[in-house]
Amino acid sequence: MSRPGALEILDHCETPIGLLCLRRRELLSRPGTMVTEVTLDNEFLMSSYNTISEGALASLAVKLHGGSELRCLVGGLGLGYTAAAALESGKVADLEVVELLPEVIGWLERGLIPLAGQLRGDSRMRLVKGDIYGNLASPPGDLWDLILIDVDHNPGERLDQGSKTFYSAEGLRKTRDWLAPGGVLAVWSSREDEVFLENLRQVFPDARCETVAWWNELIDQEQEDAIFVATCTPNYEAPLRTD
Length: 243
Description:
Blueprint: E1 7-15, E2 18-26, E3 34-40, E4 43-47, H1 52-65, E5 70-75, H2 81-88, E6 92-99, H3 102-109, H4 116-120, E7 125-129, H5 132-136, E8 144-149, H6 169-176, E9 179-189, H7 194-203, E10 206-216, E11 221-231
Helix pairs in contact: 1-2, 6-7
């Protein structure tokens, strides 16, 4: 990029959920600091500037499970920080990322996102095109130790109406069937949501919301994200797998 603060558009395309843009820029307030950002319909969606809560989504789930050689299902690739954190834990042996948009899959394949080389070079990870919410609403195929969801802004502010049922007690019961005994569901959110937490507690014996605080130097203000985590009991018997 030729001048401080210049903006480079890496990709710009219409998708079923809106106008998607991947861009790279230098922060005016932090000369030399480059960030990769995603916008949807010209509204900010995510950034590589601070990824503490994306990492916490994976690390909290791994710690809560307590096992090793884990199988992990991630809903939403984004910029790849949730998947990377799960792999970096050293506890995950098999990880599948389900991404709805082929354009986002292309960002990884074309090396446009910061972690592209790291993720493409890890043999434990598979990236598949699909609808994570549609998958979880169907009878389970494989069972997973961890299911990590990082798609919507929060349960009440969704990118697409197709995810609405997931946040209900009925949707969460179907999601629970995809978890192996002792499995953990973790969901990223931009804020706490009492209705969603209550729905989780109707389905899982152990469910809570963890707050992740971080300092946003760009506006000199502390901000908070939320991680909902829920665990199946070790003696939970998941339905038989369908082939």
